[in-house]
Amino acid sequence: MAPFGIKDALDIIIVAMLLYYLYKIMKESGTINIFFGVLSFIIVWVVASEIFEMRLIGTILDKVMSIGLIILVILFQDQIKRFLVELGNHNRWHFLRNLFRHHRNPSAGVDSRRWVIPIVYACMSMSKSKTGALIVIEQSIPLELYEKTGDFIDAEINSRLIENIFFKNSPLHDGALIIAHDRIKAAGCILPVSHDTNIPRSMGLRHRSALGISQATDAAAVVVSEETGSISFAYRGKIISRLSSTDLENKLSRLNSDE
Protein backbone atom coordinates (compact mmCIF):
# COMPACT_ATOMS: atom_id res chain seq x y z
CA MET A 1 0.00 0.00 0.00
CA ALA A 2 1.41 3.37 -1.08
CA PRO A 3 2.12 5.91 1.68
CA PHE A 4 -0.22 8.87 2.16
CA GLY A 5 1.43 11.88 0.55
CA ILE A 6 0.87 15.52 -0.39
CA LYS A 7 -0.87 14.54 -3.65
CA ASP A 8 -3.43 12.47 -1.73
CA ALA A 9 -4.10 15.32 0.69
CA LEU A 10 -4.53 17.75 -2.21
CA ASP A 11 -6.91 15.30 -3.88
CA ILE A 12 -9.08 15.13 -0.75
CA ILE A 13 -9.07 18.93 -0.33
CA ILE A 14 -10.18 19.53 -3.93
CA VAL A 15 -13.01 17.00 -3.67
CA ALA A 16 -14.12 18.50 -0.34
CA MET A 17 -14.15 22.01 -1.83
CA LEU A 18 -16.21 20.87 -4.83
CA LEU A 19 -18.70 19.09 -2.59
CA TYR A 20 -19.01 22.12 -0.33
CA TYR A 21 -19.57 24.43 -3.30
CA LEU A 22 -22.19 22.08 -4.74
CA TYR A 23 -23.83 21.92 -1.32
CA LYS A 24 -24.14 25.72 -1.21
CA ILE A 25 -25.68 25.93 -4.69
CA MET A 26 -28.13 23.08 -4.04
CA LYS A 27 -29.13 24.65 -0.73
CA GLU A 28 -29.77 28.00 -2.39
CA SER A 29 -31.83 26.34 -5.14
CA GLY A 30 -34.00 24.40 -2.64
CA THR A 31 -32.77 20.96 -3.76
CA ILE A 32 -30.58 20.17 -0.77
CA ASN A 33 -32.45 16.91 0.01
CA ILE A 34 -31.55 15.57 -3.43
CA PHE A 35 -27.92 16.48 -2.79
CA PHE A 36 -27.87 14.42 0.42
CA GLY A 37 -29.62 11.54 -1.38
CA VAL A 38 -27.04 11.48 -4.18
CA LEU A 39 -24.18 11.82 -1.68
CA SER A 40 -25.52 8.88 0.35
CA PHE A 41 -25.76 6.75 -2.79
CA ILE A 42 -22.16 7.60 -3.74
CA ILE A 43 -20.93 6.66 -0.24
CA VAL A 44 -22.72 3.28 -0.44
CA TRP A 45 -21.27 2.72 -3.92
CA VAL A 46 -17.70 3.47 -2.77
CA VAL A 47 -17.99 1.34 0.38
CA ALA A 48 -19.49 -1.64 -1.47
CA SER A 49 -17.21 -1.65 -4.52
CA GLU A 50 -13.91 -0.27 -3.19
CA ILE A 51 -13.71 -1.15 0.50
CA PHE A 52 -15.61 -4.46 0.76
CA GLU A 53 -15.02 -5.36 -2.93
CA MET A 54 -18.56 -6.70 -3.43
CA ARG A 55 -18.40 -7.43 -7.15
CA LEU A 56 -22.10 -8.07 -7.81
CA ILE A 57 -23.37 -5.02 -5.94
CA GLY A 58 -20.46 -2.97 -7.28
CA THR A 59 -21.31 -3.89 -10.88
CA ILE A 60 -24.99 -3.03 -10.41
CA LEU A 61 -24.18 0.28 -8.76
CA ASP A 62 -21.66 1.07 -11.53
CA LYS A 63 -24.44 0.72 -14.13
CA VAL A 64 -26.82 2.81 -12.03
CA MET A 65 -24.17 5.52 -11.61
CA SER A 66 -23.48 5.74 -15.35
CA ILE A 67 -27.20 6.19 -16.11
CA GLY A 68 -27.82 8.32 -13.02
CA LEU A 69 -25.18 10.88 -13.98
CA ILE A 70 -26.94 11.49 -17.31
CA ILE A 71 -30.28 11.91 -15.52
CA LEU A 72 -28.76 14.31 -12.99
CA VAL A 73 -27.26 16.43 -15.77
CA ILE A 74 -30.69 16.68 -17.42
CA LEU A 75 -32.53 17.46 -14.18
CA PHE A 76 -30.01 19.93 -12.82
CA GLN A 77 -28.74 21.63 -15.95
CA ASP A 78 -29.55 25.07 -14.51
CA GLN A 79 -27.60 24.37 -11.31
CA ILE A 80 -24.67 22.92 -13.28
CA LYS A 81 -24.64 25.96 -15.54
CA ARG A 82 -24.67 28.25 -12.52
CA PHE A 83 -21.87 26.25 -10.88
CA LEU A 84 -19.62 26.58 -13.94
CA VAL A 85 -20.40 30.27 -14.47
CA GLU A 86 -19.74 31.16 -10.83
CA LEU A 87 -16.58 29.05 -10.83
CA GLY A 88 -15.26 31.18 -13.67
CA ASN A 89 -16.55 34.43 -12.18
CA HIS A 90 -13.78 37.02 -11.81
CA ASN A 91 -14.89 37.68 -8.23
CA ARG A 92 -13.73 34.14 -7.35
CA TRP A 93 -10.19 35.08 -8.40
CA HIS A 94 -9.95 38.20 -6.28
CA PHE A 95 -6.28 37.72 -5.47
CA LEU A 96 -5.33 37.71 -9.16
CA ARG A 97 -7.40 40.79 -9.88
CA ASN A 98 -5.61 42.66 -7.11
CA LEU A 99 -2.31 42.21 -8.97
CA PHE A 100 -3.66 44.34 -11.80
CA ARG A 101 -5.67 46.77 -9.68
CA HIS A 102 -3.49 49.70 -10.74
CA HIS A 103 -4.75 49.28 -14.32
CA ARG A 104 -8.34 49.91 -13.31
CA ASN A 105 -10.16 53.19 -13.70
CA PRO A 106 -10.66 54.66 -10.20
CA SER A 107 -14.13 55.90 -11.16
CA ALA A 108 -15.28 52.49 -12.43
CA GLY A 109 -16.84 51.52 -9.11
CA VAL A 110 -18.95 54.69 -9.01
CA ASP A 111 -20.14 54.33 -12.62
CA SER A 112 -21.08 50.68 -12.11
CA ARG A 113 -23.50 51.67 -9.34
CA ARG A 114 -25.14 54.68 -10.98
CA TRP A 115 -28.31 52.63 -11.47
CA VAL A 116 -28.81 52.07 -7.74
CA ILE A 117 -30.36 55.44 -6.83
CA PRO A 118 -33.01 55.41 -9.63
CA ILE A 119 -34.13 51.94 -8.54
CA VAL A 120 -34.29 52.98 -4.87
CA TYR A 121 -36.29 56.13 -5.69
CA ALA A 122 -38.71 54.18 -7.88
CA CYS A 123 -39.22 51.47 -5.25
CA MET A 124 -39.84 54.00 -2.48
CA SER A 125 -42.37 55.86 -4.61
CA MET A 126 -44.16 52.63 -5.55
CA SER A 127 -44.06 51.51 -1.93
CA LYS A 128 -45.96 54.65 -0.85
CA SER A 129 -48.64 54.10 -3.51
CA LYS A 130 -48.67 50.31 -2.96
CA THR A 131 -47.81 49.61 -6.59
CA GLY A 132 -46.62 46.04 -7.09
CA ALA A 133 -43.24 45.65 -8.78
CA LEU A 134 -40.59 43.04 -9.52
CA ILE A 135 -37.13 44.19 -10.64
CA VAL A 136 -34.34 41.73 -11.50
CA ILE A 137 -30.67 42.75 -11.74
CA GLU A 138 -28.45 40.49 -13.81
CA GLN A 139 -25.09 39.38 -12.40
CA SER A 140 -22.66 36.84 -13.90
CA ILE A 141 -25.27 34.50 -15.41
CA PRO A 142 -26.97 35.97 -18.52
CA LEU A 143 -30.75 36.38 -18.40
CA GLU A 144 -31.45 36.46 -22.16
CA LEU A 145 -33.71 33.41 -21.85
CA TYR A 146 -36.01 35.30 -19.47
CA GLU A 147 -35.76 38.55 -21.43
CA LYS A 148 -37.29 36.80 -24.44
CA THR A 149 -40.45 36.02 -22.46
CA GLY A 150 -41.24 39.75 -22.16
CA ASP A 151 -41.04 42.89 -24.28
CA PHE A 152 -37.62 44.21 -25.27
CA ILE A 153 -36.98 47.80 -24.16
CA ASP A 154 -33.22 48.56 -23.93
CA ALA A 155 -33.53 51.96 -22.26
CA GLU A 156 -31.53 53.94 -19.74
CA ILE A 157 -32.41 53.30 -16.11
CA ASN A 158 -34.81 56.00 -14.99
CA SER A 159 -37.02 56.05 -11.90
CA ARG A 160 -40.02 57.51 -13.75
CA LEU A 161 -39.74 54.91 -16.50
CA ILE A 162 -39.70 52.13 -13.90
CA GLU A 163 -42.79 53.59 -12.21
CA ASN A 164 -44.62 53.88 -15.54
CA ILE A 165 -43.83 50.25 -16.40
CA PHE A 166 -45.39 49.06 -13.14
CA PHE A 167 -48.34 51.46 -13.25
CA LYS A 168 -51.48 49.42 -12.59
CA ASN A 169 -52.99 50.15 -16.03
CA SER A 170 -49.76 49.31 -17.86
CA PRO A 171 -49.78 46.04 -19.86
CA LEU A 172 -46.30 45.24 -18.51
CA HIS A 173 -46.96 45.69 -14.79
CA ASP A 174 -47.65 42.00 -14.07
CA GLY A 175 -44.27 40.71 -15.24
CA ALA A 176 -40.69 41.28 -14.17
CA LEU A 177 -38.39 44.08 -15.28
CA ILE A 178 -34.86 42.92 -16.10
CA ILE A 179 -31.82 45.19 -15.76
CA ALA A 180 -28.52 44.18 -17.35
CA HIS A 181 -25.36 46.11 -18.27
CA ASP A 182 -26.69 49.31 -16.65
CA ARG A 183 -29.80 49.34 -18.87
CA ILE A 184 -33.42 48.27 -18.68
CA LYS A 185 -33.42 45.34 -21.09
CA ALA A 186 -36.97 43.99 -20.96
CA ALA A 187 -40.25 44.18 -19.05
CA GLY A 188 -43.24 41.91 -18.57
CA CYS A 189 -40.89 38.93 -18.28
CA ILE A 190 -41.83 35.52 -16.86
CA LEU A 191 -39.59 34.08 -14.14
CA PRO A 192 -39.29 30.62 -12.58
CA VAL A 193 -41.40 30.26 -9.44
CA SER A 194 -39.83 28.90 -6.27
CA HIS A 195 -41.55 25.90 -4.68
CA ASP A 196 -39.80 26.35 -1.36
CA THR A 197 -42.25 25.33 1.37
CA ASN A 198 -40.61 27.69 3.89
CA ILE A 199 -41.88 30.81 2.12
CA PRO A 200 -44.44 32.62 4.33
CA ARG A 201 -48.00 32.46 3.02
CA SER A 202 -48.19 36.24 3.15
CA MET A 203 -45.78 36.38 0.20
CA GLY A 204 -47.43 36.20 -3.21
CA LEU A 205 -46.39 35.24 -6.72
CA ARG A 206 -43.98 38.15 -7.13
CA HIS A 207 -42.02 37.08 -4.06
CA ARG A 208 -41.96 33.44 -5.20
CA SER A 209 -40.74 34.53 -8.63
CA ALA A 210 -38.04 36.72 -7.07
CA LEU A 211 -36.87 33.82 -4.92
CA GLY A 212 -37.08 31.47 -7.92
CA ILE A 213 -34.80 33.59 -10.13
CA SER A 214 -32.34 33.98 -7.24
CA GLN A 215 -32.24 30.17 -6.90
CA ALA A 216 -31.93 29.45 -10.63
CA THR A 217 -29.30 32.17 -11.27
CA ASP A 218 -27.06 34.54 -9.36
CA ALA A 219 -29.34 37.49 -10.14
CA ALA A 220 -30.78 39.76 -7.44
CA ALA A 221 -34.46 40.72 -7.33
CA VAL A 222 -36.35 43.56 -5.67
CA VAL A 223 -40.06 43.21 -4.89
CA VAL A 224 -42.59 45.86 -3.93
CA SER A 225 -45.68 44.32 -2.37
CA GLU A 226 -49.00 45.42 -3.86
CA GLU A 227 -50.83 44.58 -0.62
CA THR A 228 -48.58 46.21 1.99
CA GLY A 229 -46.08 48.31 0.04
CA SER A 230 -43.24 46.44 1.77
CA ILE A 231 -39.95 46.18 -0.12
CA SER A 232 -38.17 42.80 -0.27
CA PHE A 233 -34.79 41.73 -1.63
CA ALA A 234 -34.00 38.22 -2.94
CA TYR A 235 -30.44 37.05 -3.56
CA ARG A 236 -28.73 33.64 -3.59
CA GLY A 237 -31.86 31.76 -2.58
CA LYS A 238 -32.74 34.01 0.37
CA ILE A 239 -35.33 36.76 0.64
CA ILE A 240 -35.39 39.63 3.14
CA SER A 241 -38.52 41.73 3.68
CA ARG A 242 -39.41 45.13 5.08
CA LEU A 243 -36.36 46.98 3.84
CA SER A 244 -35.87 50.71 4.25
CA SER A 245 -34.48 52.89 1.47
CA THR A 246 -31.05 52.79 3.12
CA ASP A 247 -31.14 48.99 3.43
CA LEU A 248 -32.10 48.60 -0.22
CA GLU A 249 -29.41 51.01 -1.37
CA ASN A 250 -26.75 49.15 0.63
CA LYS A 251 -27.75 45.75 -0.73
CA LEU A 252 -27.82 46.95 -4.34
CA SER A 253 -24.48 48.73 -3.96
CA ARG A 254 -22.84 45.58 -2.60
CA LEU A 255 -23.72 43.63 -5.73
CA ASN A 256 -20.90 45.30 -7.67
CA SER A 257 -18.49 45.78 -4.79
CA ASP A 258 -15.11 44.12 -4.63
CA GLU A 259 -15.77 42.66 -1.20
Q: What topology emerges from the helices and strands here?
A:
Layout: H1 6-28, H2 32-51, H3 55-75, H4 77-87, H5 94-99, H6 108-112, H7 116-128, E1 133-137, H8 144-147, E2 151-156, H9 159-165, E3 176-180, E4 183-189, H10 205-216, E5 220-224, E6 231-235, E7 238-240, H11 245-254
Parallel strand pairs: 1-3
Antiparallel strand pairs: 1-5, 2-4, 3-4, 5-6, 6-7
Helix pairs in contact: 1-2, 2-3, 7-9, 7-11
Explain what this protein looks like in three dimensions.
The protein starts with 5 loop residues before the first helix and ends in a 5-residue tail after the last helix. The chain has helices at 6-28, 32-51, 55-75, 77-87, 94-99, 108-112, 116-128, 144-147, 159-165, 205-216, 245-254; strands at 133-137, 151-156, 176-180, 183-189, 220-224, 231-235, 238-240. By secondary structure, the chain is α+β, with helices and mostly antiparallel strands. The relative contact order is 0.11. Residues 99-112 have low confidence and may be disordered. It contains 11 helices and 7 strands. Helix 2 (32-51) runs antiparallel to helix 3 and helix 7 crosses helix 9 (159-165). It has a 7-stranded mixed beta sheet with strand order 2-4-3-1-5-6-7, with helices on both faces. It is elongated, with a radius of gyration of 22 Å.
Please give a handful of descriptors for the protein shown.
259 residues; alpha+beta; 7-stranded mixed sheet; 11 helices; 14% strand; elongated
Q: Are there runs of 5+ residues with pLDDT below 50, and where?
A: 99-112
Provide the β-strand percentage band: 5-15%
Query: Average pLDDT value?
Result: 80
Based on Cα principal axes, name the global outline.
elongated
Helix and strand sequence: HHHHHHHEHEHEEHEEEH
Structural class given helices, strands, pairing? alpha+beta
Largest β sheet strand count, sense and barrel closure: 7 strands, mixed
Query: What's the N-to-C terminus distance?
Result: 45 Å
Q: How many H/I helices?
A: 11
Strand order of the largest sheet: 2-4-3-1-5-6-7
Radius of gyration: 22 Å
Q: Tell me the number of strands.
A: 7
Query: Can you give the helix content as a percent range?
Result: 40-55%
